[in-house]
Each structure stands twice: as C-alpha cells, then as structure tokens.
Amino acid sequence: MESSSSWPESSPINRIKAIQELTQGQIYTNRLHEMIGQSETIESKLELVDHTLVISTSPNNWDDQTSEDSIESVKSMIPVKTRRGCYKRRKSCSELVNVTFNLVDDGYAWRKYGQKMILNSKHPRHYYRCSHKYEQGCLATKQVQMTEDEPPKYRITYHRRHTCRDLQISSPQIILDSPSPRDNSFLLSFETNELIKRKQFVSPFPSSTKR
DNA sequence: AAGATTTGACCAAC
DNA sequence: GTTGGTCAAATCTT
C-alpha cells in the first residue's frame, strides 16, 4: 500500500496523536474481530493516511458471492414486497470500518434511508444505500455514526461492495487502492486538512430543525 | 415536478 | 421485550 501520506515530520504532537489513534484503531480492529468471530480468516490493516484512520478488514468472503454465507445473506436481504421490513438480520457479514476526523465525499452517490438511536450511544447511526440500488442493483450500504471520542470522530462502516458503474470518478478525493484482486480491503484515502478546507464539507447530519 | 431526506412503523434476531 | 436494519409516506429541497 503505497500511500503518499503527507505526514508532517516536524510535528511530534501529531505523532503522539497518531500513536493514540493507532492504538485505538487496534482496539477497534480487535472488537471487529470479536464481532465477526472469524479472526482466523481476517487480515486486518491499520493505517494512518493523512488525518484519517483506516481500519480495513479482508474477510475471505467480502467479495466472494459464491460462499454459502454470502448467498444466504443476499437472499435474506431481498425484501418481500408485501411485508415491510421482512428480512434476516445480517449476523457476520463482512464489513469495512473507517474512522475519520472529517467527513468528505467518498466518491459514491449515497442516499440516506434511515437513522436510528443506538443503545449506549449518544449519537444516532445514519444509514445510507447506493443511489443506484434500483437502477443497477448495487447493494452497497454504509452506516455513519459519530463517536463519543474527544475530538469526535466519524465511524463509517461499509457493507457490500459497489457493483454500480457510476463511481463519480471526477472527484479526486477517492483513491481505491487495491493491490491485488484477492486483497478485498480497499483504502479510502482522503486529502489533507488544507485541501479539505477548500472542499465543501459533506455532513451526514443535516440540521435537525427541519420539522 | 423530481429527487432527496425525515421519521415512525415494521420485522427478524437476540 | 428489546434492539438494529429497512421500508415508505410525508415532507423538504432544488
């Protein structure tokens, strides 16, 4: 993974912060392993890219739709039209977790479809699906939740890979770094703060003064 | 008018 | 009974 991280050499404070982030990231990774319960089949990566902590997992079946589990997941997620919300809850579906300080457009077109308060969490979890779900059958979803850390971070969990074609590649913000086809993790590399300042901040938490 | 968001309801898993 | 993920009508934005 060759990430051209613009790490400021002359900033020991940032280094300390980075170490703290990495430590916490390792905790997240361990938790993820526990949740998934497949620690022996998962490779995990922990990286600090610019100001974004990336925790990527490579479960064997992330993209392997032929595995029984995946097939079952796909089947169970197909809603029965006449029964709202009729589906099987995903038990151990592969996922990719990204913890970041800044929320920037990841290059995909997402559409929010839900928001939920989660037990023991101060902040609600936001649910997004690919905008092309129905046009192209893309099953990619993501969940965004603000952590209770100080400073607060955003925990973005991606489920299923995009199968749609519209990647909006015109946006230079996303770099899909997948060194090999079998390496199912991918790195979302964000820009430095300096660059982000010039971009429009994309918040998943619109003002709640609508209603 | 069309597309996106909000939010209460629904339902399976636990 | 509780919780988390999704649906879909109502509402808002462009």
Automatic annotation (TrEMBL):
Record's InterPro entries? WRKY_dom (IPR003657), WRKY_dom_sf (IPR036576), WRKY_plant (IPR044810)
Could you tell me one molecular function GO term of this UniProt entry?
A: sequence-specific DNA binding
Q: Where in the cell is it found?
A: Nucleus
- Please state every residue range assigned to the domain named WRKY: 99-162
* Cellular component annotations (GO), alphabetically ordered: nucleus
- Does the keyword DNA-binding belong to this entry? yes
Could you tell me which PANTHER family the record lists for this protein?
WRKY TRANSCRIPTION FACTOR 21-RELATED
Name the UniProt record assigns to this protein: WRKY domain-containing protein
Q: What is the lineage of its organism?
A: Eukaryota, Viridiplantae, Streptophyta, Embryophyta, Tracheophyta
